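Case study 2.
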Amino acid sequence: MRILLVITELDEGGAENALVEVARGLQAAGDAVEVVALFHGETPPAERLRASRIPVTDLHFRAWSGPAALIRLRNVVRRFRPDLVHSWLFHANFAARLMAPRSVPLVCGLRVVEPRRLHIRLDRLMRRRAACTVCVSNAVAEFAIERLGLPRDRVRVIGNGVRPPPPPLPVRDRNELRGLTVARVTPQKGLDILVAALARLPADLEWRWRVAGAVPDPAYARRLQRVAESAGIAERIEWLGAVPREHLAAMYAEANLFVLPSRWEGQPNALLEALAWRLPAVASAVDGTRDLDREAPGCFELTPLEDAAALAAAVVRVFDDRRFIENRAERIERLLANHTWEAVCRAYRELYREILGR
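Prediction:
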């Protein structure tokens, strides 16, 4: 098969990492693969693709150059002549629906329960263009059916995968709380809730926190810093910005608690990675995390949405539980067994073959 993967951007992130893993898996299975990014196509994820000899085209999409970038996308499709186009994330879905020829089957990827009304309206307007919409979780699939009006038989659920860390797993120092959050610095990820929770931690608790993630919203990042300074905790929080994936391993190994306080999620890769590192984890009870909890209940602690006090209490409770991971080992193993990249790639190839065989 000849598969063209189109994504909005290729910064470090969950969807972007998933695309890299799927592209490599398709290539390893003998398929011809190319990747197009609307913008940010000269990044570490793009370099990982190129190192695997998977071509990446950056369309350099900007608001003032949108039509020209869309024409470049059409030209890539004509040159590569794919059997199937698979787009990832809202803007790439929109561009692919406009520019992929009707003769080429289109698969669109839906990775969150989208809260933005304009995005919902545009998705509804163009929903018939895709042969199938792949949803990252059951919650996202129900959203696609109920809110976007997609026929159930044109919706498929294929979740995220995770790679196990190399053995042996780290022995974690428990003398102080060393927290980690891996997330883009945007309101979606609820980092303002995290800062408010950290300000509520007991005065006698020794702690420090790392936040690893790109900063697409500098104004929000500055606001977080001001809140942390006013609470007297700014020196305890290290804002690392975008971190290459090869450096994340050391952070998962050094931390002894992981927190993801998102306002919405499809299926968070970072939470799965934290569990793969056997890192005690706390996450807000949004659609994607509740779905993971239903698969294997109790692998991590769930807290109410946008509740800083509850989050602070959960952080203390989980950190104080020295047997948190040991008591959940079997459940975590069961959850991770359902989320391997090998299984994810097989599911995508089976879907592509099914669509091409219609």
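The chain has a mean pLDDT of 92.
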